[in-house]
Amino acid sequence: MITKTAEFEALKGKRKKVIEAIEVFSRAVHVSEPGSRLYVSLQDEDNPDKFLHVMAFDNEGAQLIHQNAGYTQEFVRIVTKNCKKDPVFKSYKYVGGL
Predict the structure, then answer these.
(1) Cα distance between residue 72 and residue 57, in whole Å
(2) Residues 40-78 pLDDT 10s
(3) Measured distance CA(66)–CA(77) in Å, rounded
(4) Residue 15 carries which DSSP code?
(5) b or e along 51-69 (b: 16 or more beta carbons within 10 Å of the residue's beta carbon)?
């Protein structure tokens, strides 16, 4: 399993636009990607302009499907345009959990 996070922060006044993009994107991932075991978007309670996405893919093929999907490219375009800087991605090794 491949596990990653992505962190990003909306520009002031752009939070609503980013949340709308997250909602559309999350639905597309859920409907179109059986190899994505987990895709969760979290909003920071202390700074509601900050977001953390947590994702888990069955394998590299599932990750490539996700990365190359048109809806992913559109989401990245919207986030890049409406956030302070590009998302910061980190990879993690799965240890355990539900």
Answers:
(1) 15
(2) 999 999 999 999 999 999 999 999 999 999 999 999 999
(3) 15
(4) H
(5) bebebbbeeeebbebbeeb
